[in-house]
């Protein structure tokens, strides 16, 4: 089945082609993001494969529908970039990747925490310049600290399990509490109570209307002073302007993010030779107690391989008229 693959990087092309080996879908790789301006490149493609920073709103979907597209497959678990209601109205099915090595994201979140707490990136830059002074590099023991986990699904639970291994006290918040989290010694609290008692807060919930800016100015005013915030989920969970102010006052002791609310114009491309016009991200990376990475938490051989195999399987199931097990809910 002819499929247009947008936001196709070198690794997408290689691994998606591997997953398609022997299957035979006609894959059209397009490096540009899917937008109103680029949607015409998918003309004649029954399926369109997208990623998190592609624009799949009603306007784009209407263009795709007119061109004959009947399936949108996103190479991600989250689907907040897709107007699901518009897709249903236009008769376009939407599938996602429901499971792809949750260990990859959970382990990366722990790595971010260690890096920002123990100033590992700063120390590495110093030693490359011959500076072996320890001044300004002091962190704190994680053992005995309280770690708040907002979202205790697959990824959040693995993160919690790792932090339990460090000897941390676990508190969590989720609309659907699990016995597995409690079996680790975790206690469920309301968001306000969790923020007030946690030395570290890690976000592992989806971006929904109810969770948009779950960390805003009001929430940051309630956090335990000096708390470290980790976000490897979705940028829209955090009000970045409010975070900047909390960092300036010391209310927030550190920040490590792999996602950013305005990342669509920045991430997954090399901008090192250009002037970045986003003042907020420029301000963030100027703080010594902030680490920003470019949405790479999912980026392991195991995770990407599973994402590509699941995507090809969904396209094949659609072509054969079978039930779409990875169809988005609703």
Overall structural class, as computed from helix and strand content, comes to: alpha/beta
Give the name of the CATH superfamily of the largest domain: NAD(P)-binding Rossmann-like Domain
What are the low-pLDDT stretches, counting only 5+ consecutive residues below 50?
A: none
Query: Biggest β-sheet, characterized?
Result: 7 strands, parallel
Helicity level, as a percent range?
Answer: 25-40%
Descriptive keywords:
36% helix; Rossmann fold; 330 residues; 12 strands; single chain
Outline the structure in words.
- This protein has 330 residues and is of the alpha/beta class.
- The protein folds into two domains: 3-100 and 300-320, 3-Layer(aba) Sandwich (Rossmann fold), CATH 3.40.50; 102-292, Rossmann fold (3-Layer(aba) Sandwich).
- Helices cover 36% and strands 14% of the residues.
- It has helices spanning 10-20, 58-66, 84-89, 102-117, 120-128, 154-165, 179-183, 191-197, 217-222, 240-249, 279-286, 301-320; strands spanning 3-5, 27-29, 47-50, 71-74, 93-95, 146-150, 169-173, 187-188, 200-203, 227-231, 252-257, 290-292.
- The strands form two sheets. Strands 8-7-6-9-10-11-12 form a seven-stranded parallel β-sheet, with helices on both faces. A five-stranded parallel β-sheet has the order 2-1-3-4-5.
- Helix 4 crosses helix 6.
């Amino acid at each position: 089945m002819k499929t247009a693959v947008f936001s196709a990087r070198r690794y997408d092309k290689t691994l998606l082609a591997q997953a398609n080996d022997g299957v035979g879908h006609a894959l059209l790789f397009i490096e540009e993001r899917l937008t109103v301006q680029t949607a015409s490149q998918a003309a004649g493609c029954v399926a369109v494969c997208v990623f998190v920073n592609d624009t799949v709103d009603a306007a784009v979907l209407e263009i795709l529908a007119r061109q004959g597209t009947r399936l949108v497959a996103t190479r991600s678990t989250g689907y907040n970039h897709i107007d699901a209601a518009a897709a249903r109205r236009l008769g376009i099915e939407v599938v996602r990747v429901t499971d792809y090595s949750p260990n990859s994201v959970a382990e990366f979140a722990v790595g971010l925490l260690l890096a920002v707490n123990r100033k590992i990136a700063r120390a590495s830059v110093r030693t490359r310049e011959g500076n072996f002074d320890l001044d300004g590099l002091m962190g704190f023991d994680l053992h005995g600290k309280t770690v708040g986990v907002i979202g205790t699904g697959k990824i959040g639970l693995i993160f919690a399990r790792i932090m339990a291994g460090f000897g941390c006290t676990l508190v969590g918040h989720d609309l659907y509490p699990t016995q597995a989290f409690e079996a680790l010694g975790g206690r469920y609290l309301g968001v306000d109570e969790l923020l007030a008692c946690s030395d570290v807060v890690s976000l592992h919930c989806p971006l929904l209307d109810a969770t948009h800016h779950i960390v805003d100015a009001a929430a940051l005013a309630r956090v335990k002073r000096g708390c470290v915030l980790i976000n490897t989920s979705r940028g829209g969970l955090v009000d970045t302007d409010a975070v900047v102010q909390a960092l300036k006052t010391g209310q927030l002791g550190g920040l490590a993010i792999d996602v950013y609310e305005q990342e669509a114009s920045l991430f997954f491309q090399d901008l090192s030779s250009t002037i970045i016009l986003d003042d907020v991200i420029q301000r963030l990376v100027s703080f010594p107690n902030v680490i920003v990475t470019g949405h790479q938490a999912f980026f392991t051989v195991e995770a990407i391989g599973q994402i590509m195999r699941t995507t090809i399987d969904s396209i094949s199931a659609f072509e054969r008229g079978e039930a779409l097990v990875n169809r988005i809910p609703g």
